[in-house]
Amino acid sequence: MNSRVWAWPCLCVLALLAGMTLGAHARAAIDPAIVLTATSHSSGSVKAALEDVAADLLAAAEAALGRQDHARAAEQFAAAADLVATSDPLLRARYLSRSGIAAQQAGRLDAALAALREALEIREANLPPTHSSLGASLNNLAHLVGQLGQHERAEALFRRAIQIDRRALGE
Questions:
Q1: CB neighbourhood size of 24 (10 A)
Q2: Longest CA pairwise span in the chain (Å)
Q3: Among 82, 74, 73, 93, residue whose Cα is nearest residue 53
Q4: From the CB of residue 70, how many other CB atoms can be counted at a distance below 10 Å?
Q5: Is 18 helix (H, G, I), strand (E, B) or coil?
Q6: Helix H or strand E encompassing 84
Q7: Is 78 in contact with 95 (CB distance < 8 Å)?
Q8: pTM reported for the whole predicted model
Q9: Tens digits of per-residue pLDDT, 106-127?
Q10: Which of 9, 33, 53, 147 has the fewest CB atoms lying closer than 10 Å?
């Protein structure tokens, strides 16, 4: 049987066993070869297999960035975010942020906006209001909404990011 035929269902079963569902990004971006490689090298646990797939996706995303293939990198970062366990929302936020920035660089502004908004929402819900990662999310989103011509919204986001940075520096 062709590996492309059974690799995707194999990953879906692994995800279900881990109590997860795979989002559209994961379904669109995961190369069956990554699934086959990661599942064959994992320590045997479902969680380890999914972590291996996510690690391979991250490596592929970094390689895509190195080739200036921002669209592919955005898809792979988003797919890795879809594989993050619900118990680690800040890791999901990190991958979504990377996806959003790559999508913005690829000109996929709607995808960038969705990813950066979700990353910000996760960080707002899970971090103290003075955390530097929250400021970074605000800054990333501000750049994008400014690019979209929403200058007043961008300014408000930038001001929040600056406030966080100042508090973090003790000013």
A1: 10
A2: 63
A3: 82
A4: 20
A5: coil
A6: none
A7: yes
A8: 0.76
A9: 999 999 999 999 999 999 999 9
A10: 9
